[in-house]
């Protein structure tokens, strides 16, 4: 219903054109100095905060089966009880949170240069404050920024975005309203090499459209990378000015 | 709460400083740190507030739902509390680590707001015995820099005070039962009256003196604390002893006097802030920044 204007007028229910991203604001160092690194990433009404603690000594629970030459990366995702329209009545982790936590951990393991601090542990905690579509990709972007804020050496930025195809029109950055009506493809890439590290599709997309959706997603990721890079640059310019 | 490791010398310095009324950051024993309250942090809730006092950062969101009143109180609504300690505040809160702290805070808040002297629950009733509002208040602890309970209590008062309760414009009858009708205009709403709601003043004892608004370091130098609920008129609504310390009757009496004096000031500043926020309700900020002119400071 809401997407009926899509083909004729090329306009989406919230007034955006198909290739337009929502308004993005990101900030680094929000939990300074308690956390080693932290960042917030807001895209439209989706708000995510990430905090990185470490590298520090391995926690006693993991000490038994810990290889002293390796570095442990621990990741936990949690969503606030008020984040979605349906209120979550318990704070305990459910299956979905655990799955996202382990997926995030594999993304972090991919970008953090391995075993650079052997025998230590890095904790990455991501908190979803409000979910209006594209929450998983926002979590990846926030976690990347938090790692940069913590000064942990990473291979490349991991950036992610959602994309879809509906009424023969490719769209990027799906919000919650659109998610209910079409397939949602979450795509995450390594920003400088454009290698895909995250690919998740819910619902169905017709076979010959898949490549177009992927291309759209990669272009969207490039736009997000520019914004993340700008945020990092601004932060370090400010730091430089305060040192001079 | 998240533990801080201090050496013996640091503890000694801190305790002696408190005894001379000069704390590590220069405050006196009765000074609060500066912070601010912001509304509309979470746009899909009926009321939401982000309150920050130095490094303690908490989001309080309230969602209003329609429900049936409890049989023991047929003409009252309900307010439920849920506290969630996010692991972003400390790695200790990972998994179930923050549950014990969350339980304690939840219990204190529930008992504070269950009293009719704090908040008028009758205003949440729409049709006695049939329909009432159930307000679910969710508290998310983002960062813990000491004095968590006080900040949460202030945040809850601000959130309930700026929460938009939809207005029931009337009832229609459906098969003989009354069903409330809500106005379609989203700008027609009511605010809850929080003018009598209390604020909690936590007083940990550092050495031989009580301090207000302790930092994490000061809390780690104290064995226990007293959490005292103070209403805007100076009356004491609750006293909770937390931790492992023992007190003499004289100390408790002295601390309650201290809390009453401080609590009245805190309530006044918070009420003024809530009124100002209600006036500028539709304005929301995107990037978290303490606004210079609106910064709240209590001394």
Task: Give a concise summary.
Chain A: This is Putative exosome complex component RRP41. The complex is a heterodimer of chains A (244) and B (299). Chain A is an alpha+beta fold.
Q: Mind explaining what this structure looks like?
A:
The complex is a heterodimer of chains A (244) and B (299). Chain A has a single domain, classed as 2-Layer Sandwich (Ribosomal Protein S5, domain 2). In chain A, 33% of the residues lie in helices and 29% in strands. Chain A has six helices and nine strands; from the N terminus they run αβββαβαβαββαββα. Chain A has helices at residues 5-9, 60-63, 95-111, 135-150, 176-179, 210-243, and strands at residues 24-28, 37-43, 46-57, 72-79, 120-130, 158-166, 169-172, 184-190, 195-202. A five-stranded mixed beta sheet of chain A has the order 1-2-3-5-4. A four-stranded antiparallel beta sheet of chain A has the order 7-6-8-9. In chain A, helix 3 packs across helix 4 (135-150). The termini of chain A are far apart. With 299 residues, chain B is an alpha+beta fold. Chain B has a single domain (8-298), classed as 2-Layer Sandwich (Ribosomal Protein S5, domain 2). Chain B contains five helices and 14 strands. In chain B, strands 1, 2, 3, 4, 5 and 6 form a six-stranded mixed beta sheet that branches. A four-stranded antiparallel beta sheet of chain B has the order 12-11-13-14. Chain B is elongated. The relative contact order of chain B is 0.17. Chains A and B meet through strand 2, strand 3, strand 4 and strand 5 of A and strand 3 and strand 6 of B. Chain B: One of its GO terms (cellular component) is cytoplasmic exosome (RNase complex).
């Amino acid at each position: 219903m809401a997407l009926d204007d899509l083909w004729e007028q090329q306009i989406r229910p919230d007034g955006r054109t198909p290739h337009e991203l929502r308004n993005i604001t990101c900030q680094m160092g929000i939990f300074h100095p308690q956390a080693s690194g932290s960042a917030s990433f807001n895209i439209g009404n989706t708000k995510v905060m990430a905090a990185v603690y470490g590298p520090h000594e391995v926690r006693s629970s993991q000490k038994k089966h810990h290889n002293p030459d390796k570095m442990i990366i621990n990741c936990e995702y949690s969503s606030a009880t008020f984040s979605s329209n349906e209120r979550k009545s318990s704070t305990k982790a459910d299956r979905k949170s655990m799955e996202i936590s382990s997926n995030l951990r594999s993304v972090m393991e991919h970008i953090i240069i391995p075993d650079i601090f052997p025998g230590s542990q890095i904790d990455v905690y991501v908190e979803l404050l409000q979910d209006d579509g594209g929450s998983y990709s926002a979590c990846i972007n926030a976690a990347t920024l938090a790692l940069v804020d913590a000064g942990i050496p990473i291979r490349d930025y991991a950036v992610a975005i959602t994309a879809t195809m509906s009424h023969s029109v490719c769209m990027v950055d799906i919000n919650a309203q659109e998610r209910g009506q079409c397939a949602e493809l979450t795509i995450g890439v390594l920003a400088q090499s454009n290698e895909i590290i995250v690919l998740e599709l819910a619902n169905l997309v017709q076979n010959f459209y898949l490549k177009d959706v992927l291309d759209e997603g990669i272009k969207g990721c490039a736009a997000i990378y520019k914004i993340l890079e700008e945020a990092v640059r601004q932060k370090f310019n400010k730091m430089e000015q305060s040192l001079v | 709460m998240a533990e801080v490791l201090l050496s013996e010398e640091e503890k000694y310095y801190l305790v002696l400083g408190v005894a001379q009324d000069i704390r590590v950051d220069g405050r006196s024993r009765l000074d609060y740190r500066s912070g601010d309250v912001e509304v509309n942090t979470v746009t899909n809730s009926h009321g939401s507030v982000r309150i920050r006092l130095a490094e303690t950062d908490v989001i309080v969101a309230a969602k209003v739902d329609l429900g049936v009143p409890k049989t023991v109180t047929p003409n009252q609504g309900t307010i439920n509390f849920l506290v969630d300690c996010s692991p972003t505040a400390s790695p200790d809160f990972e998994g179930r680590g923050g549950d014990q702290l969350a339980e304690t805070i939840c219990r204190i808040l529930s008992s504070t707001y269950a009293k009719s002297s704090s908040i008028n629950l009758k205003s949440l009733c729409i049709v006695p015995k049939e329909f009432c509002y159930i307000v679910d208040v969710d508290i998310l602890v983002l960062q813990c820099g000491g004095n968590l309970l006080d900040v949460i209590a202030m945040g809850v008062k601000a959130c309930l005070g700026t929460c938009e309760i939809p207005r029931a414009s009337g009832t229609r009858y459906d098969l003989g039962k009354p069903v409330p009708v809500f106005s379609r205009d989203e700008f027609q709403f009511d605010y809850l009256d929080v003018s009598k709601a209390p604020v909690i003043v936590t007083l940990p004892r550092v050495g031989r003196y009580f301090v207000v608004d302790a930092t994490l370091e000061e809390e780690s130098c104290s064995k226990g604390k007293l959490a005292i609920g103070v209403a805007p008129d100076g009356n004491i609504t609750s006293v909770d002893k937390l931790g492992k310390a023992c007190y003499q009757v004289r100390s408790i009496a002295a601390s309650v006097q201290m809390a009453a004096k401080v609590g009245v000031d805190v309530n006044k500043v918070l009420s003024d802030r809530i009124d100002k926020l209600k006036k500028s309700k539709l304005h929301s900020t995107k990037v978290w920044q303490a606004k210079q002119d609106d910064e709240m400071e209590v001394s």
